[in-house]
Amino acid sequence: MPLSEPVERELSHTRQVSCRGYKRKDGLWDVEAYLLDTKTYNMDMHEGGLLPAGAPIHEMAIRITVDLDLNILEAEAVMDHTPFRMCPDIADRYQLLKGLQIAPGFTRKTRELFAGTQGCTHLLELLGPLATTAFQATHQEREYLEDWHTGSTPPPMLNSCHSFAEDSDVVKSYWPKHYQPHNKSEN
Asked: InterPro entries given for it (predicted)?
C-alpha cells in the first residue's frame, strides 16, 4: 500500500542509505553501509565555496567484517564528502567497532563509543542499518547451522517484534518447538 497522496510540494533534500552484505571466500562476511546526502539547490558552504545542487554534502561509508557469531573482526569508515574539512578526522575512531558483537546491547554500546563529540552523527546513524544488514546477510547460514526449526536453540529474533512473539502464528508455523501459547482469556 503506498503512502497517501501528499499536498503539492518541492523536493529539497535527499538522503540515500544503502547497505550490502557479502560472503567472502574465507567464510567471513563483509557488510557495508553507505550514506549520500544531496540538496536540490546551490548551498553556500561554511568554510567557503558553493556546493552545486545535486553534489554530495555528505558521502560516507562503513565496512565491517563479521563471522557467523556476528563478532566484528575488522572495521573501516571513510568520509569522502563532508561539510567541514575536519569531519574525516574522526573516521579512524570507528575501528573501535572491532571486538564488538552484534547482539543485544550493540546499539547502546555504539552510542557510548560514538555519540556526541566522540563520533559523527551520520556514521553513528549508519550503524543500525549496518547491524541489521549483517544479521540479514548471515541469517540463512546461521539458521542452518543452529537448526532453529528442530533444535533447542531459540531463534535470536524470538520476541523481537509483534510477528515473532512466542505466541504468534508465525512462530507456531516456523518454530513450533519455541511456540508458547498464552491463554488469551488471562489478558
From this structure: DUF2889 (IPR021312)
Crossing angle between the packed helical segments 106-114 and 121-146, to the nearest 10 degrees = 150
Q: Where are the domains of the chain?
A: 13-146, 147-187
* pTM across the whole model: 0.84
Place of cell 515473532: 164
Angstrom distance (rounded) from CA 74 to CA 79: 17
Q: What is the mean pLDDT of residues 97-109?
A: 96
Measured CA to CA, the distance from residue 35 to residue 5 in angstroms comes to 27
What confidence tier does 92 reach under pLDDT thresholds 50, 70, 90? very high
Q: Which of 102, 100, 99 is nearest to 157 (CA)?
A: 102
DSSP for 38-97 reads EESS-EE-TTSSEE-TTSEEEEEEEEEEE-TT-BEEEEEEEEEE-SSTTGGGGGGGGGGG
**Would you state the cell numbers that stand for residue 183, as one nine-digit string?**
491463554
Summarised one tens digit per residue, pLDDT across range 117-137 is 999 999 999 999 999 999 999
Q: Which three cell numbers stand for residue 54?
A: 545535486
Say how far apart CA 149 and CA 177 lie, in whole Å. Answer: 7
163: helix, strand or coil: coil
Q: What is the pLDDT of residue 12?
A: 97
